[in-house]
Amino acid sequence: MENNVVIKNGVGTMSAAELVSIKQQMNHKALVRRRTKMALRLAANVMVGAVILLPLLYAISIAFMPSNELYTLDMNLLPKKPTFQNFIDAFKNVPLLRFIGNSFLVASLITVGQIITCSLAAFAFSFLDFKGKGVLFMVVMATMMVPGEATIISNYLTMSQLKMLDTYQVLIIPYLTSATGIFLFRQFYMTFPISLYESAKLDGCTNLKFIVKILLPLTKSSIGAMAIYTFINAWNMYMWPLLVTGSSNMRTVQIGISMLDSIDSQSVTMMIAGVVMIIIPSISIFIIGQKQLIRGMFSGAVKG
């Protein structure tokens, strides 16, 4: 009788071993369904990823492809005789290392500058109480709706009067702060209770010390997201560097790479090789910091 279990509906009896067997079969079916769903999702992600990455992968393939393989009637997706000559020619025809160095310097300084200015402004809007704070914050946020093309001429005239054209200063100073960064930091700072700031003030902590010692260590995710977002945007700037720089020594990589097209219009493989080299830094930074970017973007979305 110990091995028999009476079913509650009174239809009959069933042994404990049979119940265990049925339960194992149900668990196995559920496991198979979960694994099947996971496999289908993985296959769908791989297919979508392959479609999205196809242009990039084909560009990398062209970069290693001799010109005579590209200009044929055959569809050559992969190079038959891979070569590094396209990369060598790109470095020979234009000062590509100089362009990359300029872009890296400009993007790095803009990133550091925005982190400093945006964190300071966000602190003022979050913890300090002064007259017109709400109106001033609305004005700052309103600048996000103004396209850069609407202010580019006035900025150019200002920099021209200051004798800063064709210098590093003209590439860096106009982008040392941003409304997006201020908003991002402010939203994260708003998750902290005001009592944290008041307690620090009672202990004799100055505002700058409170930012450096308390806020910044607690906002690493927002700083990482801001750094990645700002660096990629600064690296990809085109219109402003094209307008304010005139010499090869001050050209950024996005402007300098277009010079490959004017040197030899038939050498598409060489131009693609240059493009591949300049997108490697931005893609690498995005891949390395994508989790940090997503975490930072949503860190201040929920208060509490």
Automatic annotation (TrEMBL):
One of its GO terms (biological process) is transmembrane transport. Its main location: membrane. It is found in: Cell membrane. GO terms for cellular component: plasma membrane. It comes from the Bacteria. PROSITE patterns: ABC_TM1. Residues 100-289 form the ABC transmembrane type-1 domain. Keywords: Cell membrane, Membrane, Transmembrane, Transmembrane helix, Transport. It is a multi-pass membrane protein. InterPro entries: MetI-like (IPR000515), MetI-like_sf (IPR035906). The chain crosses the membrane at residues 42-65, 104-128, 135-156, 168-189, 210-232, 268-289. Signal peptide: none annotated. Belongs to the binding-protein-dependent transport system permease family. PANTHER family: ABC TRANSPORTER PERMEASE PROTEIN MG189-RELATED-RELATED, SN-GLYCEROL-3-PHOSPHATE TRANSPORT SYSTEM PERMEASE PROTEIN UGPE. This is Carbohydrate ABC transporter permease. It comes from Anthropogastromicrobium aceti. The lineage of its organism: Bacteria, Bacillati, Bacillota, Clostridia, Lachnospirales.
